[in-house]
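new request in #modeling-help
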Amino acid sequence: MKKNRLFENIVHGIFLILGLITVGCVLLITVYLIISGIPAIKEIGLFNFLFGKEWASTAAEPKYGILPFILTSVYGTAGAILIGVPIGFFTAVYLSKVANKKVRAVIEAAVNLLAGIPSVVYGLVGMLVLVPAIREIFNVPDGASLLAAIIVLAIMILPNIIKVSITALDAVPKEYEDASLALGATPTETFFKVSVPAAKSGIAAAVVLGVGRAIGEAMAVMMVAGNVANMPSLFESVRFLTTAVASEMAYSSPGSLQRNALFSIALVLFLFIMLINATLNFFLKRDKEK
Amino acid sequence: MKKFISLLTVAMLLVCALTGCGGNKEAVATDGSTSMNKVIGALGEAFEADTGITVTYNATGSGAGIQAVQEGRCDIGLASRNLKDEEKANGLEGTILAYDGIAIIVNPNNPVSDLDVETIAKIYTGEIKNWKEVGGNDAEIVLIGREAGSGTRDGFESITDTEDKCKYRQELTSTGDVITTVASNPAAIGYASLASVKDTVKALTVNGIAPSEATIKDGSYVVQRPFVLVTKKDAKLSESAQKFFDYITSEAANEIISGAGVVPAN
């Protein structure tokens, strides 16, 4: 009996340690980002850094203003949500409530496949198909633009939105819908007035998850957005927070202000993502309490 | 018994690791141009595989590399430009290792096939905005470049004297991306290391000279710069540094140098 308990304790201890590895990684990254991100902000000045409109890190007189990156990330994500959420939401309602089993199986498989495509492939297809298409359709000199990035991001967040929304919609008790139908509501009325409101926390979580994916994506947008540090405009070449870090990190020399400023950008991005996570937790918690 | 074996393995690994660090006394220290990263990296690796002598490389920039040799902080300085007269007067000596030729590329459907350096500079600084001004179609010129810090960008901008003045439409992070983009946009112009240019794009002739290994080597193709090894004229190199110097300037190293995308000088 005693031996058994000892064994249990050891196993629990091992599990605890394994669990702490994750916590440790998060803490390590957070602390590292803060330590390496603060010096450049101090040197440049928080206001100049966050609200400076010019970024020229390798110029003779370097300028480190990341407002263009912040705005691009915000606009890009907002645009992707604007396009991706309606499509994803209605797809989820259709799959969860209307579609028959066979159709649902096929579409769900496609959605899962879409989720599994590496972002570099999205970028490549965007570069070879989407960018020239935008150039032709809108008659602009070059198609690599904020618009191209928004479209790629919108497609990339679809699977997240669809999958999480379906789970939320599937979890709505059948009795709610049956009651609504029994009272004479049509199926469509039932879906939108009963099922969707009942699942709204889950759907909100899906949207927030989409925001998180969109704002953190680097590879795909690097290949279609053109990467010039302009203030955002739909048909101009733009640079996101993520791509600002990724494109210059390899060449910046360790300890230089440029490298430190890149860490500061990463810190800003990290704060954005923390904020998004906090929002997500808020929605999920509210869901549980109900 | 098992424990003993694993302990022994750990001990042996430790010893290996420690001696690995301890072998530093023979290391060759190089310092300088960030653009020479690839070629020095490749040469250093091959040299280490042959002789077991490590080569360290500190990417600080041509000027800093030259200064490091002057002050004796490294064995060989690396500069991606010729030495200035006052640097030579300070007792430094430059040996050209290779030439970095940069091809100016456009879409194959672009009727323009020759530009001079001044026109290229004007195009990249936004003074010339339309292809018809240089004899092409009526289309806005789309400037494709590389990201800040890239060796090719640094080379291109220093040769055309357009540092920090280029009005890029796209800053891409690899040569492959530049070539793909130029190949897909009829109004685009870009630059890339000559070695990586493919048939999907057209390399322009500059002042009437087509880029090739021969024209780069004899200097007639002007969008190029030398990769220079900087040493002190009067001081002797350490034994291992001399070995490395001889190795990379010998013909045997040419294949590695070409593999790094530049034209060997020797």
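bot summary: The interface with chain A takes residues 34, 59-60, 139-142, 147-150, 163-164, 168-173, 177, 180-181, 184-185, 187-188 of chain B (CB under 8 Å).
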